[in-house]
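Note to self: keep these together.
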Amino acid sequence: MPGDLHNHSTCSDGSVPIHRLPLMAARAGLDTMAISDHDTLHSVRYCYEHPVQDGVRLIPATELTGYDYERQHRVHLLCYWPQDCPQLRAHCDIMRQRRNQCCLQSARELETIYPQFTTEQALEYARDSGVLYKSGIMQALHELGLADSIYGEVYHRLFGWQPRGTVLHSPEYFPVEQVIATARAARAVLVFAHPTVYKSMPLVRRLAAEGQLDGIEIDHPRNSEEDKEECRQLCRKYGLIVTGGTDFHGSNSAHPRPVGTCVTQDDQIERICALAKRYQS
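Structure:
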């Protein structure tokens, strides 16, 4: 059976606790799941400690954030089977600090806009992750009746990019080349996530040609059909792994997409696992 290799829990910006995700995969008819929370080792450690849960094989993963400074956009890189190492710990620690600084500043500003809102309430949604995300702030606003959804009109007014949100503060991200080096230091299998989301196809072409990727996430809810087809061609040309994942965030999503919406086929999952063993031998 296929597996869903891109999911988020309350260990980052998802709404569902990590221990509940495997059963959701089992009920969707999957036998493999990767839990890939943002810039953290929480999901990695959980899956190493629970290799099989509810009949579902768990693949340790993290989704690392970088920045393409040439094209001025974020980059997400899925790292499967990463090993603990100083470089990966440093990346996660620094990103945790930077995200917290930005969102705490946003929360303080929101306290002056909405007297009902308190930073302490928003921090309740950061208990598992140790990181205050914008989604946690929006959950608090939604609970208080100050927003009708997590990623609706209020979110875009407060945290949007174009036009820039009134309380948006963005963390400084590491250059994508440095993030790739971190993934390699962790001996992870490296897959470029959802290239359509941040208009990353020029970067994907370059990294694939340079041999810096192990795979590309093609089956994703927000990838365009045009980009999917080009990514398939790149995978064939360079022998890259083809992956798929729902990018599940639970209720912290603009559109409902249950676990198993997008999947990775069995042969590609086995390629990931075999490559991870090779990297770690």
